[in-house]
Amino acid sequence: MRPTTKTSSKLTLSGAWLSYVLHAFEELGLDVAEIARGAEVDLTGLSDPNARIARDEVGRLWREAMRLTGDSDLGLHAGEHSVFSANNWIALLIMTSKNFFEGMQATARYQRILAHGRVVEAERVPNGCKLTIHRVTDGLEILRQEMEFVAVVLHKLAESVRGERVRCEEVAFLHPFPGDSREHERVFGCPVRFGVDQDFLILPERCAFAPSLHYNPRLRAMVEDSAAAGVAEVEGPFSLEVKVAAYTLLLEKRCTVDNVARALHTSTRTVQRRLGEEGVAFRDVVRECKLDTAVRCLEAGQSPDDAAERAGFSSRRAFDRAFKEWTGASPASFVTE
C-alpha cells in the first residue's frame, strides 16, 4: 500500500498548451482523433480557453503519437511544425515585452496558467540568455521528445519576437545521447550535448536582448493584469507548489528546503510557515516525491539500485529501509509482485 501525505498529486496543464501540441501533430499530418482514442483521452471541451487537462493524459498522448509514428525525433519535428499562437497570456506577455529576456522573466509568476508550475527559468549568462527547462511531473515520466519539443518551441518563440532566424549558442539535455544528434544540430543550429545535469538552451545576446518587434507597454500592462487574474483562478494549495519544485530539484539532486525556497522566490522560513498552515511538513512532501519517483522507476522495470539513485537516496540500504517503512514491502518483492 502506498502512503500519502496531505499534498495533492494531480498536476494539470492548460487546454491552450495541449491545443498547441495537437496542432503541431496535425501539421505533421497525424490524426489527432486516432491518437486520442489510442491514448484513451477525451478531448471534448478542449476548445474552452479555461480548460485544464491532467499532466498524465498529455503524457499518454505523446506516447501514443510515438507509437503510431515510430519517429524518435517527434519532439523536434513537431516543434518545427508548431505555429505561434497568441491564445494564452504567457505568449502575449513575452511578445509585448521590451525584449525576449524581459518577457521570459516576467512569466515566472504566471507560468502556472499554462503549465503546472515554473517550468522555464531565464537568466543572463556571458554568451546570452540561458533558458533552463524543468521536468515537472509526479506521474508518467516526461519523454525526451516532450522536452525537445519545449526547447524547439522556446527557440521559435525567440525568433518570433525578433522576426528573424537565430542559431542557438548552446543546447543540452538531461536525457542520454539518443544515438544520433544530427537532427538536433540541424534544428538548433549548434552542437547539442546529452546526459548533463539539466535541460537548457542558450540564445545569443543579439536575439534575447534586442528590442521586440511587438513591444507595446500599454498592451503589456493590460496583459499582465489579466495574467495575474488568471493565475489566481488556478492557484492551488501551497504544498502543491512545494511538491512541484521538489520533484524538479529531486531530479537535479538538489532537493533541500533552501533550494525549494529559491525556486519559489521566497524564504525558507516562509516555506515552512505556509506548509505548517496546511498541516504539512517539508519532510513529508519530500518523502512523497521520493516514494512516487521510486515506485515509477520500479514499475518501469528499473532495478532497485537505479530506483534508489533516481529517487535521491544516499545508499541502497537507506532506500530499502525507507521503502519498507512506507510500503510494508521491500523493493525487490515490489518488483516481483
Describe this structure in words.
The chain has 2 domains: 12-208, H-NOX domain (Alpha-Beta Complex); 238-336, Arc Repressor Mutant, subunit A (Orthogonal Bundle). The protein has 17 helices and 7 strands. It has helices at 15-27, 32-39, 55-69, 74-81, 89-96, 100-106, 144-162, 182-188, 205-208, 217-233, 238-251, 257-263, 268-277, 282-299, 304-310, 316-327, 331-336, and strands spanning 12-14, 52-54, 120-125, 128-133, 170-173, 192-194, 199-203. The strands form 2 sheets. It has a 5-stranded mixed beta sheet. It has a two-stranded antiparallel sheet with strand order 1-2. The relative contact order is 0.12.
List its salient traits.
337 residues; alpha+beta; H-NOX domain; Arc Repressor Mutant, subunit A; 2 domains; 5-stranded mixed beta sheet; two-stranded antiparallel ribbon; 17 helices; 53% helix; disordered N terminus
Short note summarizing the structure:
The chain has 337 residues and is of the alpha+beta class. It contains 17 helices and 7 strands. Helix 8 links the parallel strand 5 (170-173) and strand 6.
CATH names the topology of the largest domain as H-NOX domain
**What is the mean predicted local confidence, pLDDT?**
85
Sheet-strand content, in percent, reads 5-15%
Spans of at least 5 consecutive residues with low confidence: 1-9
Tally of strands: 7
Q: Output the CATH class name of the largest domain.
A: Alpha Beta
Strand order, biggest sheet? Answer: 3-4-7-5-6
Describe the main β-sheet briefly: 5 strands, mixed
Gross geometry:
globular
CATH superfamily annotation of the largest domain: H-NOX domain
- Helical fraction equals 40-55%
Q: Tally the helices: what do you get?
A: 17
Known CATH architecture of the largest domain: Alpha-Beta Complex
Number of domains: 2
